[in-house]
């Protein structure tokens, strides 16, 4: 015996695992399967807010953060919701709330700089200094990202910028890549980078979406290899932090 939940999105067979029709799920906005499924297998993991609703929450909690507290906009990439993000950032500045962002910077320059004028602290990923390698690993080249970083520095922006590299063995862990990034940083008066050790925390999310996770094997970095890379930056006079044991 088999039955269908939520207009054909989820199919259960008597002796098979649940199957999901992702083509139907991608156009869903009301998540009816989360309430219809008798076993409560699907769960709603998102909630929509208006900018005013989100600012009300931030205003409510602001007093409990302490002098070093603030709001970090992460994702995905928060700049994909540019208009909403701008509304919230403007509200944060009116309230005196420190703002931080984690972004790829892979956006049209006008949109990117529009957001950054309201940001006090930024992490920007530079995943590979070779554009073809960057495209192979991320599906896009690095030209727009590097150009936006240059434009940000030239704009007179007063915030703090820390570059970041998710470090993957065999992809961006070479001395050559590090030296190219060091040169780019010196050319643009950048002096902080955070090297993140490869992990697979996102693997289950890929699998839940029915996708293949390309780094299910390989990519691991040893502590010794991370320290060797760090030494290249330190010797060049650049502050280099490993992992999440940082000064921020």
UniProtKB/TrEMBL annotation:
Keyword set, alphabetical order: 4Fe-4S, Iron, Iron-sulfur, Metal-binding, S-adenosyl-L-methionine
Cross-referenced SUPFAM superfamilies: Radical SAM enzymes
Protein's UniProt keywords contain Metal-binding: yes
Residue ranges the record marks as coiled coil: none
The protein, known as: 4-hydroxyphenylacetate decarboxylase subunit A
Pfam families: Radical_SAM
Residues annotated as domain 4Fe-4S ferredoxin-type: 16-48
Gene3D superfamilies per record: pyruvate-formate lyase- activating enzyme
PROSITE patterns noted in UniProt: 4FE4S_FER_2, RADICAL_SAM
Annotated GO MF terms: 4 iron, 4 sulfur cluster binding; catalytic activity; metal ion binding
UniProt key word Protein biosynthesis: no
UniProt domain Radical SAM core: residue ranges: 6-235
Domain of life of the organism encoding this protein: Bacteria
Requisite cofactors: [4Fe-4S] cluster
């Amino acid at each position: 015996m088999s039955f269908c939940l939520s207009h054909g999105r989820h199919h259960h067979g008597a002796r098979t695992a649940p199957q999901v029709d992702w083509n139907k799920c991608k156009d869903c906005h009301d998540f009816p399967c989360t309430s219809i499924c008798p076993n409560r297998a699907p769960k709603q993991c998102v909630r929509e807010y208006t900018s005013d609703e989100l600012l009300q929450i931030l205003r409510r909690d602001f007093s409990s953060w302490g002098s070093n507290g603030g709001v970090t906009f992460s994702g995905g990439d928060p700049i994909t919701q540019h208009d909403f993000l701008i509304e919230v950032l403007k509200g944060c500045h009116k309230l005196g709330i420190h703002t931080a962002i984690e972004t790829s910077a892979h956006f049209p320059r006008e949109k990117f700089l529009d957001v950054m004028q309201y940001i006090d602290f930024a992490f920007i990923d530079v995943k590979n200094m070779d554009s073809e390698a960057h495209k192979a690993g991320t599906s896009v080249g690095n030209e727009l990202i590097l150009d936006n970083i240059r434009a940000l520095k030239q704009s007179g922006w007063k915030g703090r910028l820390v570059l970041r590299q998710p470090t993957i063995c065999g992809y961006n862990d070479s001395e050559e890549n590090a030296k190219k990034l060091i040169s780019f940083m010196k050319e643009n008066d950048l002096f902080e980078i955070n090297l993140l050790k490869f992990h697979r925390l996102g693997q289950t999310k890929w699998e839940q979406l029915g996708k293949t996770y390309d780094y299910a094997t390989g990519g691991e970095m040893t502590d010794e290899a991370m320290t060797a890379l760090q030494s290249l930056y330190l010797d060049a006079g650049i502050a280099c932090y490993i992992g999440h044991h940082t000064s921020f």
